[in-house]
From TrEMBL:
The lineage of its organism: Bacteria, Bacillati, Actinomycetota, Actinomycetes, Kitasatosporales. The keyword Iron does not apply. Residues 1-51 form the HTH lacI-type domain. GO terms for molecular function: DNA-binding transcription factor activity; transcription cis-regulatory region binding. The keyword Transcription regulation applies. This is LacI family transcriptional regulator. CDD domains: HTH_LacI, PBP1_LacI_sugar_binding-like. Keywords: DNA-binding, Transcription, Transcription regulation. Pfam families: LacI, Peripla_BP_3.
Amino acid sequence: MAARAGVSLATASRVLNESDRKVGQEHRERVLRAARELDYRTDLSAQAMARGMAPVLALLVSSIDDPYFSAIAEGVAQSAHAHGVIVTIAVTARDSEWELASLRLIRGQRPRAILVSGSRVSHSPHADALLAELRGFTDSGGRAIFLSQPVGGLGAVHPANTSGARELGVAIANLGYRRAAVITGSESLLTVAERTEGLRQGLASLGGEIAMVESDTFDRLGGYRSMRRLIESGRIADADVLCAGNDFMAVGAMTALRDSGIEPGRDIAVTGFNDIATAADVTPQLTTVRFPLAEIGRRAADLALDGTALPTEDISVPGEVILRASCPPRRG
């Protein structure tokens, strides 16, 4: 490689390994041209051994079929590309033990930074071990950022769930709705607790209330099953609006409503949360709380990869209520 470019071994190494030591533009271009001609590929494992870390950003997500996480991953990938690193993704299936095991494997790859998405879990038996792993990683020079509730003084970039849900509660109460049926994920998920409490506060400010809460998995199937239980038990008749913990659950719930001859947006109002792309494509279009998910992913990756940024910063990103046809003004 060095001979092909007509430079010293040290110069070729500095260019190919992106050393902090400066190399003249002419020599740099010669080395890169030689690398292309020889189809040279950087050995990331060797680079990690030499530097102590590889040009890799690791992202832990709960699911890959949930558009919430794919939107965040898009923003992470944009930032990673700009910083000259690649992204590796581990799926944790909202299982804290699986999340911990994935983190331990990822640390063995010596990434430059780790992003942990997905709601934190109250009273998780693996929370202390997870935090210890992340602190060990940061103590060795890596950077760790949560894409959820911050833990243990580490940095975080996350949706402002409570205030967003509060604003949604106020908005639907202003439309005339007073009794909400909530379908959502496990109450152990802090995201679920934040959104449910915010919604309760918003409704209560105008005399409304949460009439019932039905929990299941925090996905489309969970939304469908929760809705079926409310319909079959007859409890749904006590509500005038159905509030899903996320848009994915709302889509499943709307299918269950139609399967029972109940028309969403006409017979009962429906709301979601997050404003995934599907929310504007379903019929009727879904009322929801919009968060800039790709922007959240990009900001978290920027925080992790920018060596000058404060890695303990806690950034809460506000949402915006989007009123659509699934939640029209209440008649009568």
